[in-house]
Structures are given as structure tokens and as C-alpha cells.
Specification:
The complex is a heterodimer of chains A (362) and B (291). Chain A has 362 residues and is an alpha+beta fold. Chain A has 9 helices and 21 strands. In chain A, the strands form 4 sheets. A 6-stranded mixed β-sheet of chain A has the order 6-7-8-3-9-10, with helices on both faces. A 6-stranded antiparallel β-sheet of chain A has the order 13-12-11-14-20-21. Chain A has a 5-stranded antiparallel β-sheet with strand order 15-19-16-17-18. The longest helix of chain A is centred in the middle third of the chain and has 18 residues, at 172-189. Chain B has 2 domains: 15-46; 48-114 and 140-278, MetI-like (MetI-like fold), CATH 1.10.3720. Chain B is built from 14 helices and no strands. Chain B is globular. The chains are: A alpha+beta (362), B mainly alpha (291). At the A-B interface, strand 6 and helix 4 of A face helix 10 and helix 11 of B.
Chain lengths: 362, 291
């Protein structure tokens, strides 16, 4: 089922949590709302669920499959909501937790005990917790609890699955496992899902599309590859992984900063090409190259201050003459080939870089 | 176990201090609590079991017991309903005047019971604000059973709410939200989720409330007006004692003490039960190992 959110705002007292946000989620899609805490992502999710009421506005609306649900209460929206801290019913067994949504149905819609039993057993198999139905939530690990919460949400056969930082309270290893499992589950069930997370890795790995949010607004919507490789704003590139920021200016369509020039190919693309502007240049650590000698291409001299070769890349920290820090990720082969040592002075050049000025992108 | 022996050596205070502290607390408890309790029963039975039951076999005694149970029987359910409603409102909603409401709930704790009794006399007594109106309809509140119930309700007002507010605040409302999102109605959410989560705290509050309702003296004394027909057990004990009838006074006192002891036993059982539940939740299980 598709979800369309139009011009939704939410204010808590004096605090603007959502500012005129519009979003479309296609049928069967898994979308991640990604952003730092306070960006409004959870508020947006709770408004879609019906757990929060958006501010009154004439053009504001929420459509589920073309139907306006803005006035509909949470229980009538047929959404499965998974809470960050599970919110399992402590006094009920795992089985009864999952059965809850079926047992509270009005009598004429309520399945028989046998049907409920079959349904719960099937869901227990789906979350790989067969045989643990008699346990209580307190007797389960965090990962198991979250899977029970998911099964409980799925039991009512929701048209939309909403997950609020579902793996936020779990440790890294469990998180990775559950993330993969959730993706496989989604591929099986194809229920339209929205996942809230502040973990960019999680969002990029699991989602079909990522919605990057910041300060009550949506910064960018796109596939993981789009937002990672073609970030629409300084915030997006900064939030999605490590990035080096160089201060410089734009001169005739080139970004220029102390000896480093990037982006000639963009020259002439903009009417403002002849202008000189102050600007920031963003380069990811793996997009920088280290040379021992100047080879004609623009480069910045810098001192190797720390080397960490434990990982897929060798992480090199350098300091420029002006005292700025640069982070470079070198492939291990290249690192070994260079034979870098701490305290050496080398030259850093950029293979690729991004510039953001208010209305100007190279 | 070796580990406990070791940690005992490392963390405990010297032996003389431990003996002193334990001795002091046992001494105080014996002199101030256990001894009077023993004396109450000893005095009650001093003249023999026959006299004990003889002083019980008296219409005035039974009237006092009935009235005490009636006052408790009305005020406890009333305060249970009020306590759940108030703590629900305070813990789960934000509204202006919330902290004022919490302060108001504490009022009966802060004000001397005698004063609350006097306020009711002032309001509903013959010379009081509503006195004429009530007299016109021939309704008796002060110096009658309704006044006693009213005073008891007032004095025991905070017990259930005070017990539930911190509990419900701590639990938050995520489970209720989960229930609602699963399609449960408000009433279903209350019966199936909220009530089971607060049941032990609620019972504990009810037991404390009941103990106070049966034992209240000050407020009830003012509104009862020293008529024979409006004596509760505590009031009757005083009447007997002042009338130099010590054996009967102690007999009634022993009844009250017995009711108190039953309450205490119930409370202890509940605490044990709650601790056990807490223990269950904190107990690491084998499940932790398998994700």
C-alpha cells in the first residue's frame, strides 16, 4: 500500500519538530528515515502511524493507498508499529504477546482459538523462535524481544509496517544479523515499510530508498547509491560517513584552495562561473590520494600524524601546515607500496570532490 | 561459598559496630513495637478467655466493629477508583495544574486529621455552611455514619494514588500505545495491559489504605461527636478506657491489633511476591547467549 504525506507540520510547544514535510512511499517499498536525533524522523513516523496528531493545516494530508487517514485513530489504520524499546507486554507470554492483536478484535471478527494458535505458531517459525512461546519477555535476549515485537505487529496483517529505531538498543553484532534478516523478511512479505534510524550504515544497507532528514525538514530522498554518491547538500554528505572539509573559494568555475584545484570540468556550466565565492570543498577519505613527490597535479603538503592499518583500508591521519586535519583511507596495497611512516611529510591530492554553495554545485 | 566470605571481609564494618547497630535496632523494635503488642494481647486475656469473649459479646462492641468495617469498606473502594484515575491522569497525560493536583493529593498527609474533621463539621454541621440545607432535607452527616465515612475517605485519600503515580510514571505509556496500535480499544487496553502492570502496586496501596481506614482516630473522633452509636473500634477503645473498663478496652484493642497484623502479613506477602517478580526480570537467562 502506498503512503503519501503532504505538507505535514508538527509543533511541540515552541519546538518545531516537523516543518511542512511531504513524502511519497511506493507500494511494497522499504524506506529508511535517516537523520540525527531531533531531526523529526520519529515524529514523522508516529504521525504516519496515528500515534501523533499533526498540526492543523488546510493542505496537510496523509493518504494510505489514496485514502485520507489523517483523522483516523491508530487502531483503525492497520499499521504494525515496532517500538525502539520493544514495548512487549511484560505480563504476557511470547505466545500471548503475538496473539494480542487477534484477541482484542470485536467478537464477530475474532479468529477462533485454533486459528489464533496456527497463526502465532506460523509467526514464531517466521521469527525463528519456535518452542519459546511459553517464555516471558524478561526471559529473552534483546534481539529475541525485538523479533517478538515484530511478529506481534505482523500478526494483525498490517498494510504498513513502521519501525522506530528497531535495532537501536542492540549491540553491533546482533544488529547486523537482524538487519539482514529484516531485509530478507521484507523481500518475502513485501509489506510497505518505513524504518527510522540514525545509523547511516543501517539505512544504506537495508532500504530501497533513503530519506535524509535534518532540522524538521527532508534534505534528500533517493536510493542508497544516490544519496551516498550524489549528496544534495552539505548536511547529507557530512551525515553519510566521514568527510574532509577544505575551506576555499570558487574561481571561474574551479574550486581553489591552497594549492588544490578540483572541478575544471564544471567550468562554464553556471552563469556565475566568473564570480569568486567563498566555499567549502568536501572530499571523502577514500577519494584522497597520497604521493611522496609532486607530480604536476595540485596537491597539499601534509604531515603524517597517525596510521591505523587495522581494517579494509589503512586510515591515515595527516596535519597540514595551517594545522588542519585530513583523513585519508588508502587501500592496503597502496599503503604498503608507499611504505608510509609517522612524521613524514607527503602530498595529498583529491581524485574527486564536491562543492556546495547555496545555489551552485560543481 | 568462598566468594561471599571474601567480599564480606573486604566490605563489612568492624564486628563491634555491627553488634552495636543490630543490638540498637532490635532493642528499639522490642521496646517500642513488640512489647506493646504483647501487652495488648496479654492484658486482653488477663482475666481469662471467658471474660475476653464476654466483653466481645456486647452490642456496642459489635456496632463498633461493624462501623469500622463499613467505613473501611466504603472508603477503600472509593479511593481505589479515585487513586487509579488520578495516577492515570498524572502519569500518562500532561495538563496545566498537574503539580497542583499532586500537591492536593498529599494534603491529607500534611494536614492534621483533627483539622480535617473540624472542616467537615464546619461544612456539614448544623451551624455549618450546608447545615440548614441538609437539615431541610433531613440529611444527617455530622455526628452520624456518613460523616465518619467522609472523614475516613479524606484521611485515606492519598494512599493508592501515592503508590501508583511513581509506578505508572516509571512504566511510561509505550505498552499502551502498542496495544492501541494493535487495534485494542481504550477499555481493553486498560484491562489487558495497564491493570496487570500495576496490580501489585495497587494491592499494596489498597492494603495501606485499609489499615489507615480501620485505625483512623482523629478525624473520625471529631465528626462522631461522642455518641455511642457512632463509635468505631478506635473510638470505642477510648470510651472503654476512659470508663475504667481496661479489660474490655484491651479486648477491643486486640481486635484492632489483629486486623492490623493481618494487613501487615498481607503486605509482607506482597512485598515478597513483588521482589520475586523483580528477581525474575533481572535474572540472566540462558536465552542471552543465543541471539
Amino acid at each position: 500500500m502506498s503512503i503519501i504525506v503532504e505538507h505535514v507540520s508538527k509543533t511541540f510547544g515552541n519546538y518545531r519538530a516537523l516543518d511542512d514535510v511531504s513524502l511519497t512511499v511506493n507500494d511494497g517499498e522499504l524506506v529508511a528515515l535517516l537523520g540525527p536525533s531531533g531531526s523529526g524522523k520519529t515524529t514523522l513516523l508516529r504521525i504516519i502511524a496515528g500515534l501523533e496528531i499533526p498540526d492543523e493545516a488546510e493542505n496537510s494530508a496523509i493518504y494510505f493507498h489514496g485514502e485520507d487517514v489523517a483523522r483516523r485513530q491508530v487502531g483503525k489504520r492497520q499499521v504494525g508499529f515496532v517500538f525502539q524499546h520493544y514495548a512487549l507486554f511484560k505480563h504476557l507470554s511470547v505466545f500471548e504477546n503475538i496473539a494480542f492483536g487477534l484477541r482484542v478484535r470485536p467478537r464477530h471478527l475474532r479468529p477462533t482459538n485454533q486459528q489464533i494458535h496456527d497463526k502465532v505458531t506460523e509467526l514464531l517459525r517466521l521469527i525463528q523462535l519456535e518452542g519459546l512461546g511459553r517464555r516471558y519477555p524478561s526471559q529473552l535476549s534483546g534481539g529475541q524481544r525485538q523479533r517478538v515485537a515484530l511478529a506481534r505487529a505482523l500478526a494483525i496483517e498490517p498494510k504498513v509496517l513502521l519501525l522506530d529505531e528497531p535495532f537501536g538498543a542492540l549491540d553491533a553484532k546482533v544488529r547486523q544479523g537482524l538487519r539482514n534478516w529484516l531485509r530478507r523478511l521484507h523481500d518475502e512479505l513485501h509489506v510497505t515499510s518505513i524504518l527510522v534510524t540514525h545509523d547511516q550504515e543501517e539505512a544504506l544497507e537495508v532500504a530501497d530508498r533513503v530519506v535524509v532528514m535534518n532540522q524538521a525538514k527532508i534534505e534528500q530522498v533517493g536510493t542508497p547509491a544516490e544519496v551516498f554518491h550524489h549528496p544534495a547538500s552539505e548536511f547529507v554528505i557530512d551525515f553519510l560517513g566521514n568527510v574532509n572539509v577544505f575551506h576555499g573559494r570558487i574561481e571561474q568555475g574551479k574550486a581553489v584552495l591552497s594549492g588544490l584545484a578540483v572541478g575544471d570540468r564544471a567550468a562554464g556550466k553556471s552563469a556565475a562561473a566568473s564570480e569568486i565565492r567563498q566555499s567549502h570543498l568536501y572530499v571523502r577519505p577514500h577519494e584522497l590520494e597520497i604521493e611522496r613527490h609532486l607530480n604536476g597535479s595540485p596537491a597539499i603538503p601534509a604531515l603524517v600524524s597517525r596510521i591505523n592499518p587495522a581494517g579494509a583500508f589503512a586510515k591515515i591521519a595527516l596535519t597540514t601546515n595551517e594545522g588542519g586535519d585530513i583523513q585519508v583511507d588508502l587501500p592496503l596495497e597502496r599503503y604498503e607500496q608507499l611504505g608510509l611512516r609517522q612524521g613524514e611529510t607527503v602530498f595529498v591530492s583529491a581524485k574527486k570532490a564536491r562543492v556546495f554553495t547555496p545555489d551552485y554545485v560543481i | 561459598m568462598a566468594t561471599t566470605a571474601k567480599s564480606r571481609r573486604a566490605t563489612n564494618d568492624p564486628l563491634w559496630l555491627r553488634i552495636l547497630l543490630i543490638g540498637l535496632s532490635i532493642g528499639f523494635v522490642s521496646v517500642l513495637l513488640v512489647l506493646p503488642l504483647v501487652v495488648v494481647f496479654a492484658e486482653a486475656f488477663r482475666a481469662g478467655v471467658g471474660t475476653y469473649f464476654a466483653s466481645l459479646n456486647n452490642p456496642a462492641a459489635w456496632r463498633a466493629i461493624r462501623l469500622t468495617l463499613l467505613a473501611a469498606g466504603i472508603s477503600v473502594p472509593l479511593n481505589l477508583v479515585f487513586g487509579v484515575a488520578a495516577s492515570w491522569a498524572i502519569a500518562k497525560f500532561d495538563f496545566p495544574g498537574k503539580s497542583f493536583l499532586i500537591t492536593l493529593i498529599d494534603l491529607p498527609f500534611a494536614v492534621s486529621p483533627v483539622i480535617s474533621g473540624l472542616i467537615y463539621v464546619l461544612l456539614f454541621g448544623l451551624q455549618g455552611y450546608f447545615g440548614k440545607l441538609l437539615a431541610a432535607y433531613n440529611i444527617e452527616i455530622i455526628f452520624a455514619v456518613p460523616g465518619i465515612v467522609l472523614a475516613t475517605v479524606f484521611v485515606t485519600f492519598p494512599f493508592v494514588a501515592r503508590e501508583l503515580i511513581p509506578l505508572m510514571q516509571e512504566q511510561g505509556d509505550e505498552e499502551e500505545q502498542a496495544a492501541l496500535s494493535l487495534g485494542a480499544s481504550g477499555l481493553q487496553t486498560f484491562w489487558r495491559v495497564t491493570l496487570p502492570n500495576i496490580k501489585w502496586g495497587l494491592l499494596y496501596g489498597v492494603i495501606l489504605c485499609n489499615a489507615r481506614a480501620m485505625g483512623e482516630f482523629g478525624a473520625v473522633s471529631v465528626v462522631a461527636g461522642h455518641r455511642g452509636s457512632t463509635n468505631t473500634i478506635p473510638l470505642y477503645v477510648e470510651v472503654l478506657y476512659n470508663g475504667w473498663n481496661a479489660p474490655a478496652a484491651f479486648t477491643m484493642a486486640s481486635i484492632l491489633a489483629l486486623l492490623g497484623l493481618v494487613t501487615l502479613a498481607a503486605k509482607t506477602y506482597l512485598e515478597w511476591k513483588v521482589n520475586q517478580q523483580l528477581h525474575d526480570t533481572l535474572e540472566p537467562t540462558t536465552a542471552e547467549a543465543t541471539v
